[in-house]
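Input sequence (390 aa), recorded before submission:
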Amino acid sequence: MGSHLEYVLNFGVILLAANVGGIISRKLKQPAVLGQIIAGIILGMGLMEKTAFIEDLGEIGVIFLMFIAGLETDVQELKSSGKSSSFVALGGVLFPAAFVGGGTYFLTGDWMMALFVGVISTATSVSISVQTLRELEKLRTRQGITILGAAIIDDVVGIVLLTLAIGIVKPSEGGSVAVVIGKIALFFAITLIAGIVVTKLLKYCCDVINLDDKIVTYAVVVCFILAFISEELGVAAITGAYFSGVVFSMTDHRHRLSHEVNQIATIMFTPVFFVSIGMGVDLNSAVSALGLGSVIILLAVLGKIVGCGLGAKLTGFERKEALQIGFGMIPRAEVAIIIANLGLKMGVINHHVMASTILMVLVTTLITPSLLKWSFTGSHVKKAEEATVS
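Predicted structure, C-alpha cell format:
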C-alpha cells in the first residue's frame, strides 16, 4: 500500500544516496558527479523506480547546472584569450566530432546517431584539469591559461553545435535546415534583446532601489523563461539556461548569483539529475556497449589530443607543451552526459550509446590527472637542463 507522500521519501533517499556517493567519490580524489551517477546505478538495480517526479526534478537540476556554467563564463577572458585558445578550441571540437562521429557511423550506419555522438564528444570539462594544474602550480603557465580560454570557447561552440544538431535531427513541421537556422537566429535575437534589457534594467534599478534581496529570484525567473522559450523554438532548454547565465555574468551580481544559485542547485536539484541518469543506466546495455564504448573512448581521447595539440602547435607551442594542452582538454563530464541524455529522450541515441557516454566520462576523468602529472613532471628535467645549458 503506497502513501500519496511516497515521492517525499524517494526524494530524501535520492538526496542521501547522492551525498554519500559524492563523499566517497571525493575521498577517492574523483569528482562528486561520478559518485552520484554510481549511486543512481545502484538505486536503479531494483531498489527504486525512476518516476516522472524524479525526472522533472532532474530537469530543473540540469537547467540550474547550465545557468551556473553561463554565470561562470568570463566574457572578457573569452575576448582576450586570443588566437591560441581559439585554435585549440577549434581543433578540440572538429577532431573529436570527426573521429567519434565517423567511428560511430562506421559501426552503426546511423548518420543521425553519429552526428549526435560526435557532438557529445566535443564537450570539455576542465574542472579536473584545473584542479590538477593548481596542485602542480602550473595553472598560471601559458599552457594553463590556454586550456582555460579554450575550454570557455569550447563550451560556447559546443552549445551552438548542440543547438544545430537538435534542430537537424528533431522532427518538426517545417523540418528544413533553413527553418532550423531561422529558429536558432530568432532564439539568439531574443537572447540578445533580453540581455540588453536585463543589464540596463539592473543598472537603472540599482540606482533607485536595493536589489540585493531579490536579485537571485529575478535571475532564476529569467533563466526559466529563456529555457522555456528556447525549448519552444526547438532549441534545447539548456541552451536558454546557459545564455541567461552569460547575460547575468556581465552584471555586478555575477559572483553573488553564482554562489547562491550553486547552493540551491547542489543542495536539491543537480544531485537528483545525476542520480536519475544513473538510475536510467541499463547494466546489461553497459556490458554489451563495451565494444562500442571502447571505440568511442579511444577516438574521443585521440580527438582531443590530436585536435587541441595541433591547434597549440600551429600557434607557437613546443611539442611537449602542445601535448600537455591536449591532455588538459581530455576530460568530459556533466555536459557530455546532459547532451547524451537529451539524445536518449529524443530517441536519436539508444541505451548502448548512453552507457558508452557514461563509460567515456568515467575513463576520461580518471586518466587526465595522471597524464597531466606525467607530462609536466617529464618536462621539469628537460627545462632544467635547457636552463643550465643557456
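Checked by second reader. The chain has one domain: 57-376.
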